[in-house]
Design brief:
It comes from Cyprinus carpio. Keywords: Disulfide bond, Signal. The chain has strands spanning 26-31, 38-46, 60-61, 66-74, 81-91, 102-106, 109-110, 118-121, 127-133, 143-154, 178-191. It is mainly β. A hairpin with a 5-residue loop joins strand 8 and strand 9. It is globular. It contains no helices and 11 strands. The protein has a single domain, classed as Immunoglobulin-like, CATH 2.60.40.
Length: 197
């Protein structure tokens, strides 16, 4: 017997984390739109480019030190779903809609105005990776708060990982390419004071 069916999912859903950085990263649990299960999104800051040493406790980073971030989704079929970072940005306060912000990732690619951002993996599995150099918002705060808008992509469509080559014009995906979207907000990263520098 063959059955044909279709599913409709909301394109955007915003989630907030009202807490600071935890040792193992921020964790958000979300029910799948069809009500058939849950998945978890974690944003985890790391010391190293190999993503083997996560920060333990409060994250304190020197200005211009490279910061490594993983965004991981658990509770989905890794053979069918890929995690895609749509947009990531920093604000000086724990408010993703705050009017002062700096874009790190825009439309799945690094901000062309910030040469320190590297999108290391995006749409090639259930974990996406990026890095940037630590900065502060001058005169406002010695902390930054990270926020990422993430969507889950059906691997079978074959369009989860797109090129970010300079001059590449990104096509807007049709809504059928989206499995589900959510925004993950991470706690603060604090600038280290170093009187020797």
């Amino acid at each position: 017997m063959n059955m044909t069916f279709s599913c409709a999912y909301p394109l955007i859903q915003t989630l907030s984390m009202p807490m600071g950085v935890q040792a193992e990263g921020g964790l958000i649990s979300e029910e799948l739109p069809a009500g058939q299960g849950t998945y978890q999104i974690r944003m985890i800051p790391y010391h190293d480019a190999q993503f083997t040493s996560p920060y333990d406790g409060q994250v304190q980073v020197e200005v211009n030190q490279q910061m490594y971030v993983a965004v991981d989704v658990e509770g989905v079929d890794r053979n069918q779903i890929a995690t895609v970072l749509d947009n990531c940005w920093a604000t000086p306060v724990n408010d993703s809609d705050y009017h002062i912000r700096w874009n790190l990732i825009m439309r799945e690619c690094q901000n062309p105005d910030d040469g320190t951002v590297e999108v290391l993996q995006n749409g090639n599995g259930t974990t996406s990776y990026f890095s940037f150099r630590m900065f502060t918002f001058s005169g406002i705060s010695d902390r930054i708060f990270l926020h990422c808008q993430v969507h889950l992509c059906l691997v079978q469509n074959g369009r989860c990982a797109l090129s970010c080559d300079p001059g590449y014009r990104r096509r807007r995906r049709r809504s059928l390419d989206f499995y589900h979207s959510a925004a993950n907000h991470h706690g603060s990263l604090r600038k280290l004071s170093n009187p020797d520098k």
